[in-house]
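Exercise (ungraded).
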Amino acid sequence: MSVRQLWEGTDAAPWMQKLNGRTKLIVLFLFAILTITIDNPRSLFVLFSITLLLHVAAKTSIYKWKVLAILLLLGLWGSMFSQALFFAQSTRTPLFVLIEPNAGFLGTLTGGLYVYREGILYGAVQGLRSASMMSLGLLVCWTSDPRQLLQALIAWRLSPQIAFMLVTAIRFLPVLAAETGEVITALQLRSDSHSGRTAVIRHLPYIAKPLLARCLRRAQTLALSVVSRGFFLANANKQANLWDWREKLCCISLSLLVAVIVSSKISYLLSEQGFYFGVLRQAYDWTKLYL
Amino acid sequence: MKIFTLVLLLLTYVQVACASMKLEAVYPYHLEKKGIETVFEESTVPLYVNIVNSGNAAPIETEVKITLTEGFKPVVDNKWQAKTIGDKTIVTTKWLLPQDYGQTFDLLYVEAQEDVPFGKKQVLVEAKSGAWQESKLLSFTYEAGQKAAVEIPKGKKKLDKKKFNWYIQSITFPVDNLGLKDDRAEAGVIYVRDTSLEGFRNRMTGEGATSWSSVFNHPAAHLLLELRNPQSDVRVLKFKAELTDKNTGEPMPGLCVAGSVDDDEAQGWQEKNKANDATTALISLDGNKAPRFILPLYIDYLNVLEGEYNLRVTLSGGGQEKLYEAPIVIAKKHSIGLFAVGFAFTCLALVLACSYKIKNTIYAIGAKGAITVALFAAIAFGGITLPTTILGDLLHVFLGPFSGLVTGLLNGVLQYLLIVSLLVLFRAPGVLSLMFVVKFMLSGLMFGHFSPLGVLSCCVYIVVLEATLYFCGFYKNDTKGNYMLLLCFMLGVADAFITFINLEQMMFFYRLYYADWYLALYMLINGLLYSSVGSWLGIKTGLKLRQVMGE
C-alpha cells in the first residue's frame, strides 16, 4: 500500500464514508474535550477502547492497523519516557540515576535527573489521552476525503477565500513534494564535493530558497488565471449538502452529554476550592468515581 | 600601663564580688498559666527548677536536691537519680553552670501515687555550690480528680496507667485558625501555591527565597489536635508533624518551621540544614481532660511534591512519646497552568473578535498574495507538521522529551524562515494569521488534528506574534540593518513566551509533568535561539525572493 493510499478513505466501511463531514468533525472535537476532562484511568481506557472499536466497525485495513499500532506505541512510549523523568508526585521510586544532584552544573541545573517507576505508569495512563485523540483523528482521516471535511467547514460559514486557499494548498502538496525532489536532484548534480554528494541531508539548508522562488512564480501564474476568471472574489458555490437528521440528533445528544460531563467536572473542581453546593452532592460523588 | 592594670584588677574584683546565683522553682508548673497550686489525684505534673548565675569567672558545679513528700514519685531519666529514705523520695542531679552568665533549667515530672491522702503537701528544692546555698519550699494542694467512668471488672488484667495517662485522640485538617472545619473542603487535602518558577530561580541562584518570608511565615493550613488526658496531667510536650512516604514510612521533605531565630539568622524555611523537614511546636497539657490544640502547618513550597503521604504527628516529653498517622494529600494549585489557559482563551476571544478583518487582509494582498500564503502554508505543513508528527514520535523513542530540541529545528528555524520571508514579501497585518489558520486547517484536514489544544495554541501564536510585529513597528519601519536584528530577537522572545504558554497548557490539559529547567531549556533553545535564527534567515530569504516578485 502506498503512502497516498494510506491517506485515502476508499477502503473504509461505506457507512463511515457516508457520514457527513460535520458529524465527523463534531464527534472528533467533542471526543477531544472528553479526553482532557476525564482523569479516571479506567474511564480513559474505556474512551480509548471506543476509538479502537470504531476502527473495527469502520473496517480499517490490516495495513492501517499496523500503522496505527506503531504510531500509538510510539506516542505512548514518548509519554512514558518523559513522565518517567519528570514525574513530580509522591510517592516516587527512582529506578536509575541519570544525573546526580551534585554532578556539577548539570546537577545544579536539573536538581538531579532520575527515572521514576511510578512515572512510567503515570505516563502510560496520561498518554491514553493523546492516543485516543490520535486514534480518532486517524479514523476520520482514513474514512474521509479532505473535500468532505472542507465542505463541512464551508457549511459552517468558512470564508470562501480561505476555503480556496485550503484547496490550493491541498492540491499543490504533491506538486510541492515533486518540486522538492527536483531541487534536491539539481543540488546533488551541482555539488562540487565528491564525498556525500548524494546525501539529501547535506542539501537540506539550500532547498528553501529555490522552492519558495518556484512557489512565487506559480502563485503569479495562478493568480492571473484565477482573477481573470473572476473566481477568487466570487461567493462560494454553496451546494446543497444535506445533513441527515439522525446524524444531527446524534451530535446534539453527544454535545449535551459532553456539556453535562464538563459541567460536573468543573463543579467538582470548584467544590474543592470551597464553592460547594449541597444539591450537587450526587454529581460530586459521580465525578469522583468515574471522571 | 600601671593605671590600666589597676583598673583591670579592680574590674575583676568587682565582677567576682558581684557574682550571684539564684534558684527558682515552681511546682506545679505550667507553660502558660501561673499561680496554679493544685495537683489532681494520680496526675503527673512537672516541677520546674531554674538556676540563674552571673558574674562567675569559671564554670561552677552545682548540686540540686529535691525532696518529695510521701506518695509522690519522680519520673526519672538518666539525668536525675532518685532514692527513697523512709517515706520520702530524694532526687538529685549535678549541673555545671556556665561561665559569666547562664540559665540552667529542667523539668522533673512528679507522679502522684494511688491512695495518697488529699490535703496540703510540700516539696523542698535545694541547690548548693561551694559557699552558696539556697532552698525553696513549695506548697501545693493535692485534690481529688474525676474518677474513670468505667470501672475495670474484677479478674481482668489491670491497665498500666502510665501508658494511658495521656494520648492522641484524633487529628483533623485542614481547619481554620479557630479550629473550625469547613465541611465543603475535602478532609485531609492541603492545597499549596504553585512555586515552579521561584523554585527554579532559587536552585540556580543558590539562595533561599528571601523575598518570600511573608508567604513562608503564613501557615498553609491548620491542624486540630485532640488529646485525652484522663489523669489531668500537666506536661510540656514537643509537637512534631512530618510527611512520610506511604510505602516506606520514610520522612519526606515538605513541611518546615516558620521562623527559627530572627531576621539576621536563617529563617526556618531558609535553613541550610534540612535534617528536620517538620513543623514543630511546644504545647502544654494544663490538666484539662480533653485538651484541643490548633496548630499551624508550614509548607516548604520550594521542595514539596504533590501527592499522597502520611502525616506523622509525634508528641514527646517527659520520657514519653506518642505517634499518630493520618493520610494526607498535598495538592498544588496550578496557577501558572491556569494563567496559561486563561491567556490562551483570551487569545481565542481576540482572534474570534478580529476574524472579520482577515477578509480585509485577503483583499489587501490580493489573489497572488493569498495563493502565496496557501503555498507557503502547504510547505509549512509538508516540511514541519508532517515530519514532526511522524519522525518526532520516532525520535521520542531514543531522545525522549529532548527530541523536541531536534524537531525544533523545523518548528523553529523553518517555520520562522517561512513566516518572516512571507512577511517581507507581503507586509500587511493579518498575513501571518492567515498562514497560521491555513496551516492549522491543513493539519486538521489531513491528520484530524482538530483538538481544543490545537485551536488554542494556534490562537496564541497569532495574537502574540501579531502583537510583537505591531508593537515593534514592523508594518511601518523599513527592513534595514539593526532594526531587523532587533525584530528577529523580539520574535525569538515572543516564541519563547509562546513555547512557555503552550507547554503549560499541555501540562494543564494532559496532566503532564515537565521540570522547570526543561521548560527553561525549551524556551531558550526552541523559543529564543531557533526562532531568532529562523527569522534572520527569513529576512535574507525574503529579500532575495523580492527579486522573483519583480520578475
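Further reading is listed at the end of the chapter. For now, observe: Chain B has three domains: 2-143, 162-332, 336-549. Residues 260-270 of chain B have pLDDT under 50 and may be disordered.
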